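Whiteboard transcription, Tuesday session. T.W. wrote the C-alpha cells on the left side:
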C-alpha cells in the first residue's frame, strides 16, 4: 500500500500545482481559449491582450510552479501545496515580472512571424520555428535558474544562456520530453492540459537543470 499511496500523492501534487498555475493566470487561459475558437479580426486583439498580461500573470505563475517543484526535487518540506505556491508567487513576483517584460516581446515577434509566414516563405518559417524552439528551452531554463539562485536578473539571463547552449543534453532532453508531453496532451489525452501538462514539464525541466547544476557544483564550476 505504501507504493500506491506514493503514486497517489504524486498524482495529487502534479494536478494541484497545474490547477494553481492555470488559476493564477486565468484571464490568459480564457484569452487563449478565445483565440483557439475564434476566427477573424479579433484574433490579433486577443494575442495583443495575452502579450500585455503575460509579464503580470503568466511569468509569475510559472515561476511559482517551478519554485514549488524545486521544493519537491530538493526534498524541502511543504506543509501545504497551496500555501507554498502562494508564497513562491509573492516572493518571485517582481523578478519574474521583469523577466516577462524582457522575454514577452521576443515571443510576440516569433509567434507573429510564424503565423504570418506559415503560408509562404518556407525557409524563413523554418528559421523562426528554430528560434522559437531555442527560446522555449531558454525560457524554461531562465525559470529554473531564477527560482534556484538568488542573483540579479542580468546574471539569471547570462547563466540561463550558458546552460541553454552549453549543455546539449539539457537542451535535447527538454525539447524531447516537452514535445512528447504536449503531443500526448493535445492529440491523445486532452485532460492532461488541465491537470498535468504544465506541472510535468516544469518538474522534468527543473530535474534536468538540477542534475546539471549538481554536476557543475561537484566539478567546482
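and on the right, the sequence the group agreed on:
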Amino acid at each position: 500500500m505504501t507504493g500506491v499511496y506514493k503514486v497517489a500523492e504524486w498524482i495529487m501534487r502534479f494536478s494541484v500545482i497545474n490547477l494553481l498555475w492555470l488559476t493564477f493566470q486565468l484571464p490568459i487561459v480564457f484569452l487563449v481559449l478565445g483565440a483557439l475558437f475564434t476566427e477573424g479580426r479579433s484574433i490579433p486583439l486577443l494575442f495583443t491582450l495575452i502579450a500585455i498580461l503575460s509579464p503580470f500573470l503568466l511569468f509569475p505563475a510559472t515561476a511559482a510552479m517551478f519554485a514549488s517543484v524545486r521544493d519537491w526535487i530538493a526534498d524541502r518540506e511543504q506543509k501545504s501545496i497551496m500555501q507554498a505556491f502562494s508564497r513562491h508567487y509573492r516572493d518571485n513576483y517582481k523578478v519574474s515580472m521583469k523577466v516577462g517584460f524582457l522575454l514577452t516581446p521576443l515571443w510576440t515577434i516569433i509567434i507573429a512571424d510564424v503565423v504570418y509566414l506559415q503560408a509562404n516563405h518556407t525557409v524563413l518559417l523554418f528559421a523562426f520555428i528554430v528560434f522559437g524552439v531555442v527560446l522555449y528551452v531558454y525560457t524554461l531554463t531562465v525559470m529554473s535558474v531564477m527560482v534556484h539562485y538568488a542573483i540579479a536578473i542580468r546574471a539569471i539571463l547570462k547563466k540561463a544562456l550558458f546552460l541553454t547552449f552549453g549543455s546539449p543534453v539539457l537542451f535535447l532532453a527538454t525539447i524531447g520530453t516537452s514535445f512528447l508531453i504536449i503531443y500526448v496532451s493535445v492529440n491523445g489525452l486532452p485532460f492532461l492540459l488541465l491537470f498535468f501538462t504544465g506541472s510535468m514539464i516544469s518538474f522534468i525541466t527543473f530535474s534536468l537543470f538540477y542534475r546539471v547544476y549538481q554536476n557543475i557544483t561537484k566539478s567546482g564550476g
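Someone added at the bottom: The chain has ten helices and no strands.
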